[in-house]
Amino acid sequence: MSVFVFVFKPEMIYNINMKIERDISSDIELFKDNLKRLNKEQLLAVKHEDGPLLVVAGAGTGKTTVLINRLAYLVLEKGVKTDEIFLATFTEKAASEMIERADKILPYGYVELWINTFHSFGEKILRESGLEIGLSSDFKLLDETAQWVFVKKNFKEFNLDYYAPAGNPNKFIKELLKHFSRLKDENITPDEYLDYCNNLSDEGKDEAEVLENKKLKELAQAFFVYNKLLLKNDYLDFADLINYTIKLFKTRPNILKKYQEKFKYLMLDEFQDTNFSQYELIKILSGDKANLMVVGDDDQSIYKFRGASISNIMQFKDDYPLAKEIVLSSNYRSHQDILDLSYSFISHNNPNRLEVK
Fold this sequence. Notes:
By secondary structure, the chain is an alpha/beta fold. It folds into two domains: 184 residues, Rossmann fold (3-Layer(aba) Sandwich), CATH 3.40.50; 94 residues. It is built from 14 helices and eight strands. The strands form two sheets. It has a six-stranded parallel β-sheet, with helices on both faces. Strands 4-5 form a two-stranded parallel ribbon. α3 crosses α4, α8 packs antiparallel against α9 and α10 crosses α11.
């Protein structure tokens, strides 16, 4: 049997440490050079101190550059630890790109980055602390297909009439799940929805209004049953990851305090596409310090049909009336003729655009 013994001499360790220090010093100088390339508005956003900040950033104006450079600024200039910053993104693809860019701009050795989608963030929190509100730590997540299969398998439990025509009892499952998703986007609990619908009166209503009440009561009952079945089987859907995290923070202030103290700064990308529940979560987490930076542009919204977009941004202005506002308007991606045509096109959405508001 061969035995290999590696001996590190003091001068070897010294040389390794010196190399790491040189690498870090070089990375910091590179970061400072990056800051010199930013325009005035971008630099203001990156170096924003404490308190809420709204950044309105059109396509091609460098919003990702601002987010990543702010992350690096907080770590390298302000001495904030990487795991004390939460950067929320809208998609897994965006999160991966942010992590890759952060890895390039931060010196070697900076790990524990909290760059997540709302859903992956919620899952991480619930896996760790969900037991505090009665959730199993090994819950299973259902995607859209698995949700449909789950409802179909338990269809009889829903006791449907309006939404169960004899010809095709599974016809409305997809629409039911869409309705449930919208309810959860607005953080409406099954109990709240059921109480509201059960209090609807048929007195003095015509036949059409009575039928509408029946429909709503059936939807509320189905929503209640759906969530009860999920919990019974240790299942969660993706919207649950947000809403149960909100419930955890609201009903367990000791857990909320732990995460509020942990995250000194919060940043939120694609703010125009966040729903009510997601915004509620980030608002709770930011607490009284409100070191919250949101970046959005209503002209880029892909979820306007869900009531997202300008309403989120205007609500932020109401929630944080003293928030600093920065507009990134210099486009680095497109030629002026393209910009002129694009602006002419999106102006047809006036007067509902943020610029007009």
